[in-house]
Design goal:
Elements (H helix, E strand, L loop, with lengths): L1 H19 L8 H5 L2 E6 L4 H14 L3 E2 L8 E15 L4 E5 L2 E5 L3 E15 L2 E9 L5 H26 L1
Parallel strand pairs: 1-2, 1-3
Antiparallel strand pairs: 3-6, 4-5, 6-7
Helix pairs in contact: 3-4
Length: about 160
């Protein structure tokens, strides 16, 4: 009786650990081996560049330089926006005389969009990723995603070197 119970407990744990591991496509070697980056902000929003800069400084993977010509890579930040609407879905009925008018509820207008990080070298685009606006911040999510991808690839590369 004890053996089947252990099996029942282990199977869900194995499934969770398997799904928790993310798999990413390999990043170009240029991203993995670069030492210096230049941040080019084309968003018209200084906060976007400030967020990228803070993440790069904290991470310490790359040295941020002030001159594009001295950078191994250029991180180009762009923004795309559009107006969107949202309805809270509450049905509202108003009676005017003998006529009842029912609408879909309150409608809100807001700006939606995304931030794109395009990584370039002297020859052109090396890698691109886009994240939608979010409460956490699209720029923050882009920088965290890049860091996770690089750190995951570094671990894989390190395992491959040790297995040779």
């Amino acid at each position: 009786m004890k053996a089947p119970m252990k099996t029942c407990l282990l199977v869900p744990l194995l499934a969770v650990s398997t799904f928790a591991k993310e798999s990413y496509a390999p990043l170009p070697e240029k991203i993995m081996h670069a030492k210096t980056v230049y941040v080019e902000n084309r968003t018209m929003d200084a906060v976007v560049a400030d967020t990228a800069f803070r993440h790069l400084q904290k991470w310490k993977k790359y040295v941020v330089v002030n001159d594009r010509s001295k950078a191994d890579l250029v991180f180009v930040l762009t923004m795309a926006t559009h107006e969107a609407i949202y309805s809270n879905g509450t049905r509202v009925s108003n009676q005017i005389g003998a006529t009842t008018i029912t609408t879909g509820g309150q409608i809100y207008s807001y700006t939606a969009g995304s931030i794109t990080l395009e990584i370039q070298d002297a020859a052109g685009t090396v890698w691109v990723n886009t994240k939608p606006f979010s409460k956490k911040g699209a720029t923050r999510e882009l920088m965290n995603d890049l860091r996770q991808r690089i750190e995951r690839q570094e671990k894989i590369d390190q395992k491959e070197r040790h297995s040779r």
